[in-house]
Backbone:
């Protein structure tokens, strides 16, 4: 192949890529309200056998995925662990910590193409409740944008992960805060969809009539009604922990969440 032909082909491919992302994908977003693709990993990364076994033992979401999507999930978990630092405070970081924390984040963002967020670069883990300098109180977890950190009490993270029907999941809760902040500022396709649907979701917090109906049903715990950020995080906890109850009691709100995070029940077939 001559150099001239190679350059011609290269420019043709670049033009096609630009055309797809600048012309076709915006139209696709308008028609279908989701990115043109989510998962594409030419060089997918694999977990060690011991790491994969932790997912098998402790992560129902992973176990329900098809074989192909399990490979996608594992790749994203591997990427998460490689992109963020895990720092133990009076506790030794283990594979279990990394896998369960990364898996929780990947589960939440599995329907989003650009899932690695730069609002944080580290996960700080304490053995149990810790004293936070943010508000001089003891916390179980927090998102601290000033130091670009997610902070967890491992005791409480593990309790939330292992108890799957109480709608309290510390990992999902804190990662939802990060995702919320990210999508308020980003213009990537997944973030645009998230923000558009969030504007519909938040009506259930701001509209007195919709809000009263939610409260009367008593499905969401009272903590949800503190502010819009807690409202979203609590809703996402419920979405992943008791989806069938959520869908039965609040079908329209459930449908907005499905679109917002591009959740697809076909994942599990």
Residues:
């Amino acid at each position: 192949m001559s150099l001239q032909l190679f350059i011609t082909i290269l420019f043709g491919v670049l033009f096609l890529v630009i055309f797809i992302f600048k012309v076709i994908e915006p139209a696709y977003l308008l028609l279908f309200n989701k990115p043109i693709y989510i998962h594409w990993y030419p060089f997918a990364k694999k977990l060690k056998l011991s790491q994969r076994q932790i997912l098998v033992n402790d992560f129902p979401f992973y176990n329900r995925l098809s074989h192909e999507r399990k490979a996608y999930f594992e790749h994203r978990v591997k990427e998460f662990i490689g992109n963020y630092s895990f720092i133990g405070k009076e506790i030794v970081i283990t594979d279990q910590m990394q896998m369960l924390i990364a898996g929780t984040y990947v589960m939440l963002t599995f329907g989003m193409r650009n899932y690695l967020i730069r609002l944080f670069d580290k996960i700080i883990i304490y053995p149990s409740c810790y004293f936070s300098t943010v508000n001089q109180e003891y916390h179980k977890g927090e998102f601290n944008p000033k130091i670009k950190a997610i902070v967890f009490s491992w005791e409480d993270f593990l309790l939330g992960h292992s108890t799957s029907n109480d709608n309290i999941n510390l990992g999902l809760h804190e990662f939802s805060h990060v995702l919320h902040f990210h999508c308020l500022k980003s213009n990537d396709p997944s973030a645009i969809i998230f923000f558009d649907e969030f504007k519909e979701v938040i009506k259930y917090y701001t509209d007195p009539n919709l809000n009263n109906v939610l409260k009367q049903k008593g499905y969401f715990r009272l903590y949800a009604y503190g502010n819009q950020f807690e409202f979203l995080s609590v809703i996402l906890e419920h979405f992943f922990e008791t989806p069938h109850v959520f869908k039965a009691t609040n079908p329209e709100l459930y449908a907005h969440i499905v679109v917002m995070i591009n959740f697809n029940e076909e994942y599990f077939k």
